[in-house]
Predict the structure.
Amino acid sequence: MRTVAFVFARGGSKGIPRKNLRKVNGVPLVVWAVRAAQACPEVDTVVVSTDDREIAELSAGVGAEVPDLRPRELAGDETPELLAWVHAVSWFSDQNGNPEFDEFVSVPATSPLRQPSDITSCIQAYRAGGCDLVVTGSPSTHHPSFNMVQIGDDGLARLVAGSDTPMENFGRKDWRTTLVHPAATVGDAIRSLEGSHLQIILVASDDELVGTITDGDIRRGLLQGISLEDGLDGLIQTDPVVVAPDTSRIVAKRLMEEHRVHGIPVVEANRRVGGLHVWSDFSTVTRQETTGMFDVSCVAYVTSPRYVLETPSVMAGRVKLVEIPRSRTLDIDDEFDLEVAELLSRGGGNNEWL
């Protein structure tokens, strides 16, 4: 049994410049993550995946392996995390793409208050069986559908989820943000995924659908050795599931469930794209109820490298949650979070492992 822990630490960040190098209690965030993984007896190897040479040198200096720098196209603010995971797995795979280790552990650099025992708990939960992935979280104190609003172009606030969206709005979101031309490159496709915040993009020429590409298609291609400059041949699903403009939501949802896809293009009779159905179209909440609900945290993730390569999305499989005290789940997003982490890290916790 070989367990590899990966710390994913980009050089850039929207909220805090050079965030993963910022210090909490005198220690850079990336080092907190590396040392927590090193202090976990179940972990055999600790690896840092970064696009930044300074982070790479710092990580190697505290004993982490840094096989190579991550391509910048896989280190953007909106790059799907799963693409970085696949790239990391490829470092420890044979020439046929078969992983040469057994357990994949992600230890995000932005959760400095975790304890090594939290990582151990996740690994033990995974080894107990019955799941494909282990995540962490703490009990929710409020329902996001009743406490999160979005400001519209008219300046008015509306609930993000749980509202009664008119039927005619479904499948009619700005699908053009998902478009790429058949002559585009793999790098172009990744940037389109980042910009759309979805897990599927549409390949079209003059609005005529050619096919679809998912983040899973790109992950498999990267594992097989394609480069970011290569074309999309071999990645495009040329015969995707599609629906007509008058297809009901019930039928569209059932097709997505049956085919296990993230989105279904709305296609007119002449193959022209008219919209896109995605899972969020079908999200409805009827009660302000939080019993049994958890806020997922970034303390640790545990799975198999095979799941990383094959899953259509991180949470698509059987997922177990390990409950972590809220005081250890802080995820650093802004300067205020850094100040809170600084205070809590000096609050008498057990950091002898650091």
In short: The chain has two domains: 3-141+291-345, 163-282. The radius of gyration is 21 Å.
